[in-house]
Amino acid sequence: MDMKKRIHLELRNRTPSDVKELVLDNCRSNEGKIEGLTDEFEELEFLSTINVGLTSVANLPKLNKLKKLELSDNRISGGLEVLSEKCPNLTHLNLSGNKIKDLSTIEPLKKLESLKNLDLFNCEVTNLNDYRDNVFKLLPQLTFLDGYDKDDKEAPDSDAEAYVEGLDDDDDEDDDEVDEEDYDEDAAPGDDDEEDGEEDDEDEDGEEGEDDDDVSGEAKEEDELNDGEVDDDDDEGK
């Protein structure tokens, strides 16, 4: 699928100005250039064009709000001075897997004053002596290069952190549900106790009733015996 059609599909009946994130990975560029993307995407903050066959970013429109640009696994070898003009507020730039061979190619990036995170994995430039030290000197605004800072401390993964926070939120919801269930379970024994109490009362009443019946029966038997003895005495008297 070519890039224009892909952009049309990604819009999903939205206007370009409504789009903040646009992923065009694995589509086909036209002669190695960006096409179908215009400055109407004025609210765009994240653009991903991974593995689309780009050789140039010259056709990139003016995107003042763009913060993160994914250009990995293309065939870009230069022309990066366009980025400071078209995307002056970039903070994250991924150029991994491109044909960048020397430091002079990335030198124009020093005009991107907000750039904090740059990735050049699998580019030939990473094989140069003192590559990391030289890049940090060339681009002093950088905080992380290839995922690590000057002191080799790993960059935090914002996506992973968001995912973990999402899990924490789910856990909190689960805890709330458990609390409600515990509350219901706590309330239930009270009801059971009342029901048990009523059943016990009924059982006691039943037992008392049986006892009364037993007492009445014994009383009748005694009366009959007494009546029998009286009759015998009367017969003997006669």
List the helices and strands and how they pair.
Blueprint: H1 3-11, E1 21-23, E2 46-48, E3 68-70, H2 81-86, E4 92-94, H3 103-106, E5 117-119, H4 131-138, E6 144-145, H5 158-237
Parallel strand pairs: 1-2, 2-3, 3-4, 4-5, 5-6
* Mean pLDDT value: 80
Structural class: alpha/beta
User: Approximately how much beta-strand content do the residues carry?
Assistant: 5-15%
The portion of residues assigned to helices is 40-55%
Distance between the termini: 131 Å
Count of alpha/pi helices: 5
Radius of gyration: 43 Å
Give the SSE string. Answer: HEEEHEHEHEH
How do the strands of the widest beta sheet line up side by side?
1-2-3-4-5-6
Brief summary:
By secondary structure, the protein is α/β, with parallel strands linked by helices. The chain has helices at residues 3-11, 81-86, 103-106, 131-138, 158-237, and strands at residues 21-23, 46-48, 68-70, 92-94, 117-119, 144-145.
Describe the structure.
- The structure is a single chain.
- The protein is of the alpha/beta class and 238 residues long.
- The protein has 5 helices and 6 strands; from the N terminus they run H-E-E-E-H-E-H-E-H-E-H.
- It has helices at 3-11, 81-86, 103-106, 131-138, 158-237, and strands at residues 21-23, 46-48, 68-70, 92-94, 117-119, 144-145.
- A 6-stranded parallel sheet has the order 1-2-3-4-5-6.
- Helix 2 links the parallel strand 3 and strand 4.
- Mean pLDDT is 80; it is low at 159-167, 177-185, 212-216 and 228-238.
Question: How would you describe this structure in keywords?
Answer:
238 residues, alpha/beta, six-stranded parallel beta sheet, disordered C terminus
